[in-house]
Amino acid sequence: MNDPDELTSFRRDAPLVSARAQQAALFRAAASLPGIRCTDTAVDINGTTGVAVSLDDPALGRAELVFDAVGSTTWANASSRATGPTGSGSATRSGSPPSSTAPADSPADPLPDPKDIHLARDTSPRPLWAGARMTLLTAAPRRALEPPAAHGQLPSLTGMRWVAALLVFLHHIRNFGYFGGSRGQLVDWAFGPGAVGVSFFFVLSGFVLAWSARDGDSAPRFWRRRLARIYPLHLVTAVLALLLGATLIPGLRPEGAGETVANVFLVSSWWRDWWQALNPVSWSLTCEAFFYAVFPALYVVVRRLDARAVTGVLCLAALLVVVLPWAGLHHALGWIVPSNPAARLPEFVLGVAAGRLVRLGVWRGPGLDVSLALTVVGYFLTHQLPGVYGVSACTVLGLTLLVPAAAVADLRGLPSFWRRRRLVVLGEWSFAFYLIHILVLRLADQYLSLHHLPTLQALAATAAVLGVSVALARALHEGVERPGRRLLLKGVRRKAGAGPSVH
After folding, report:
1. Gyration radius from the chain CA atoms
2. CA–CA distance from 374 to each of 197, 392, 393, 407 (Å)?
3. How far is CA 153 from CA 103, 408, 497, in A?
4. Tens of pLDDT along 454-478?
5. Buried b vs exposed e over 216-239: b needs ≥16 C-beta within 10 Å?
6. Residue 451, SS3?
7. 40-49 pLDDT, tens per residue?
8. What is the pTM of this model?
9. CA distance readout (Å), 251 to 246, 247, 268, 310, 343
């Protein structure tokens, strides 16, 4: 060969080139390059015999070419190059021929002359192009998957945020008793465990922070970004709750200045009597504030561990999620309550460990479908166990698998229902929705008789409260959350760079 960087270059002189002839040419070319190992396997594709040729290169990783034989002959009709570190593809070895169309986001590379079939050893990052009868698989050597500054979005996780917030909303609808009789029992069965949406938020928070952690970042800079993320909305909804408590909803009125100050500074749920101070759902922000406080030190430790040790951390955190409710139930440990930040820390640590494993490129969990099924099973299992386990213990396995599975689906471009545009938009509003919906429910409960309504009226009331909450959430997201974050981060992003959008 004239070009030492070529894996193979040959001309199709005959009208058709058989799969075995293609294979032989590849073997001859690969044998001339140092460090290349070439193996072949006969494969069945829709009842015909093809050849899968595997090329192992220590620098580029593994490449696999599948030649789909039509009768006994075939030819490769595309010039395919290896993708970058995160490139991936797949060739079906039992009954599914390689894709006949290129991915929608790939450039329209012109087809080469079929008389000139050429595969070049090119390490430049290029999107995968799957030819009609040839698929190139690449898997770069395992190394840490560093999230790109401008391309670290994980839209499936954003879509899931909306579903988690909606579960919490429907859980509160059940608590307010809109539905009565057998309908109320059905709502209780379906949405009684809805509080696990908060557990999802805690796991997700740890996962995304570990995935998006920046090299050389300082703790003060990290804390400033997190403050900008949650504080503008927290402060506005806390003031709104204070005003409503003083005027329209006496039940929201704080017992004293200490409770108000504790809530404003996100420490209120450390005291059991104050766990629902001002805005009742803001107790979870107290937990998040604690998680943010410990994350810089926690990640320093996790980052120094190898994959096996990080897996151990994940398993230990998952075990604690189950053991702590048991300890609180059987040994009357008063501090183990769902609103205590220390009691919820294992869920956050679990997410951090899972995020680190995905970033290292060693996550080996099941896909989205299996992970979601396990989460749903755990969700409904809560009815069979004491209530304290329903907060997080029953769904810990499912959520441990579901969050990384969604992230991996996004990173690899796999199909995902959760990244649909409407879900993602609602997910972007979900934080505002979570904080405002309980105030809407309390206001409606104060002035309207919404208990044990007939089915149609209960559905209409639920839809009305949901619609008002979503509308207010959008207004708060656009008018408070985003401007407040920009204001608090003014001058910071240019220095630190932008990170993934899901936090």
Report:
1. 27
2. 15, 14, 13, 17
3. 19, 11, 14
4. 999 999 999 999 999 999 999 999 9
5. ebeeebbeebbbbbbbbbbebbbe
6. coil
7. 565 544 444 4
8. 0.71
9. 9, 10, 17, 45, 27
